[in-house]
Amino acid sequence: MSNPVPHESSPDGFYDVAIIGAGVVGCAVARRFALAGARVVLIEKGTDILSGASKANSAILHTGFDAPPDSLELELVRKGREEYLSIHRELGLSLVRTGALVCAWSAGEHESLHGIEQQAHANGVQAVRPLSAAQARALVPALSSRLVAALEVEGEHVIDPWSAPLAYVTQAMALGATVLRATELLHGTFDGTWTLQTSTGTLRAGAVINCAGLYGDRVDRCLELPERFEIRPRKGQFVVLDKAAFRHVPRIILPVPTAITKGIVICPTAFGNVLIGPTAEEQPDRTRASLETDTLEALLQRGAELLPILRTMPVSATYAGLRPATEQKAYRVYSAPAQRAITLGGIRSTGLSAALGLAAHALHLYERFGTPLTPPPGIPDIRVPNLTETEERDWQRADHGEIICHCERVTRREIEAALASPLPPGDPGGFKRRTRAGMGRCQGFYCGARVAEMTQGCFSNPPPAATGSQGDTP
Amino acid sequence: MTTADVIIIGGGPSGVAAGLTLRKQGVPRVVLLEREAELGGATRHCAHSPFGMREFGRVYFGAAYGRRLARAAHKAGLDIRTGHAVTAVQPHGVVQVVSAQGLQTLQARRILVMTGARERSRAARLLPGDRPQGVITTGTLQASLAFHGLRPFRRPVILGTELVSFSALLTCLTHGIRPVAMIETAPAPLARWPLRLFPRLMGIPLLCGVEVSDILGTPNVNEVTVRKGGATRALACDGLLLTGRFTPESALFLQSDIGVEPATSGPAIDQYGRTHDPLIFAGGNILRAIETGGWAFREGRAVGAAVADDLRQSPETAPPVPVTFDAPLRLVVPSLLRRSTRPQRAFPSFQLRFDRAARGVLRLTLDGEEVWRKRGAWRPERRVLVPLPPQATQAEHVHFHFDERS
Hints:
The structure holds 2 protein chains of 2 kinds.
Chain A: E1 14-20, H1 24-36, E2 40-43, E3 60-61, H2 72-91, E4 100-104, H3 107-122, E5 128-132, H4 133-139, E6 149-153, E7 157-158, H5 163-174, E8 178-180, E9 185-190, E10 194-198, E11 201-210, H6 216-222, E12 234-241, E13 252-255, E14 265-268, E15 274-277, E16 281-282, H7 293-306, E17 315-323, E18 332-336, E19 341-345, H8 351-367, E20 403-405, E21 410-411, H9 412-419, H10 428-435, H11 448-454
Parallel strand pairs in A: 1-2, 1-11, 2-8, 4-13, 11-19
Antiparallel strand pairs in A: 3-7, 4-6, 5-6, 9-10, 10-11, 12-15, 12-16, 12-17, 14-15, 18-19, 20-21
Chain B: E1 4-9, H1 13-24, E2 30-34, E3 50-51, H2 53-56, E4 60-61, H3 62-75, E5 79-82, E6 85-90, E7 94-99, E8 102-113, E9 117-119, E10 135-137, H4 138-148, E11 156-159, H5 163-174, E12 181-184, H6 193-196, H7 198-201, E13 206-208, E14 211-216, E15 223-228, E16 231-236, E17 239-242, E18 246-248, H8 251-254, E19 280-282, H9 293-311, E20 321-325, E21 329-333, E22 336-337, E23 349-354, E24 358-366, E25 369-378, E26 384-387, E27 398-404
Parallel strand pairs in B: 1-2, 1-8, 2-5, 8-19, 10-17, 11-12, 11-17, 12-13, 20-27
Antiparallel strand pairs in B: 3-4, 6-7, 7-8, 9-18, 14-15, 15-16, 20-22, 21-23, 23-26, 24-25, 24-27
């Protein structure tokens, strides 16, 4: 592949498309449009990409085996997954081919497994097979003896949920896309082209794509588009167990899903941990995803019931996220050709898997607006650093400087590279997502001070008193 | 093809003490691996706690104590390798190491794991609320201030009333940080009497029997809510300092087949400091959280002596007998006894801790026969020492009973 000089994205302040929201969907859309030759601007109100729903998920690359039949969601999950599988190597993205077991813990659930198997086949997912409890426990010996039966879904995989969108947006930037963080859309008007007022200035664009996740309905309103859906945030809390748990959970352990939710998953992560979650708690608040001790205890309890050895595993991390659910289960994807606006809304739980599919779908909808794009002459070579334990990490290579975060074995060279990357982290959360420093079992006890020093002045929101303590009076 | 007689993992007080003893006893090749750039372990950033009276005959402060340890280690001829992190301990005395130069496999006749302890994180405590910046442990605070001149907050709430909590409070006050309150889940402060008066003297409210019910703020903490019974109270602040609740830094065991004890979260060891793997020993605060640096130093010395003795003989492979105990005892160290008559025991006493305050009779039985008893009012967070009788290593059943009397 060649490394073309990126064309000036917008010498006159005009963009072909403005994408609102740099979650995983927005990042994928930016990449797809940049690859198609569009002048792209990606607007994010958070101080870094992935600061909303995309920062907290279960990191599974789904097959769509249990998606609603004939739904847009199913189609886009399948397409998104396929594209991920075809590009992950060249972008340096991980893929942990764990497979999943849908576990039945009662006779009633056992009866449902057959229906799930049939649905999987109907959804085009052929690599599923029913297992007896003994067969399932041969694959995952830690499963409780209460297991009744299971359904193996081979194609369910685990990925790094933050490096993937970072790779997408980095590739878009290499093709000239502009990324504006800490920039909130205030209002948009359309008079043949869009004029977008943001918290950091005014932009003009030929089309708008709303990828605003938890704020999808509000952004539609800012753009004076019809009110078609309402976001009803659904909170999910997670517990992350120590890396010692990883070897006991070689497969994703799924429950039999209910009408409302995929349920609580016990899942190995690409970083070598095990996570338990998410809960599904509806709440009006779109900003606070707060943890509750009782709920976290219940998650641990649930994990220990299904895989008793997990009872002995220490907790490394806890987190909570909000999913942009709406009053309906389906994705809320709309195109308004007259206003040259596309809304990718209500991507409540399969966004990571479907993002690339959604991006291709958005481009397809855009093409109907009748503005042809000229693809760039070449695709720039970009790779994001590997943070997963299934591929070689930087600490395993010589001359990494030193290890700064010992729990996650993050090197000085990795940290320096992240801070000097085309899209350096905008806040401490983004820093952790790019490097994993401080995300391990000690949660920064050992490296926190060192990391604070190395990142001093790098973020827009410093700690309240991040100044020298020497010579400063109380 | 061994690279050393002994590899010590961890250059804090216990690791250095073990190394000094091994060298003194004539063990030629002793490698000390430390992942940080300096020796000293956790004592390096405790800028005000005095150390060293019993080890070196005078008092040293934090970083100076670390330097004193380093001087002693160099002088004793230890092969000190700082910036070397161990990624795995494996059977047959094999250790996987990473340094700036790359990966290395080392092998020794015996391995000593002395990696100390750390404070439990916000996540490990399952604390509720938002996840803003500014929720940190004493270790992070003291390292920030001592090494980097960084002050993570100005008006934190301090959670905990252990010894280290008062050390944290003092650290705050000497660096222009004014805690808004000190809070404790237990009904009374855990540290001993004179210390608990200290916050009040400084005009800092001490709230006991309260739980953190919420942490609020984005991106920084702006409020911690505490609950006592049905009543909640909001504390305006800009940080939450998590103190104490130490847990052994025992990842190397947790990720090996040796595993850790649920009671201590550290490796099980016998009266010599030997783990389930006869070539691997452990000592210091990895065994149980937490004792002082001085205690860790003496324990390191004792385990070092036991290892020196072990090297002169063939490895001890007798299967160990577990030491069991009743509630409300929380832990016993050593929790294994090996049927061995070697005199060089590292642990002349059992160390016990209670889970909660209790009154009653503590008894030790060997194969059902009582060999020791004591009546008392026992408190959590206090070390209880029970002499380890020589005949205990011949018993099949070693059990600590507790008969609670109100």
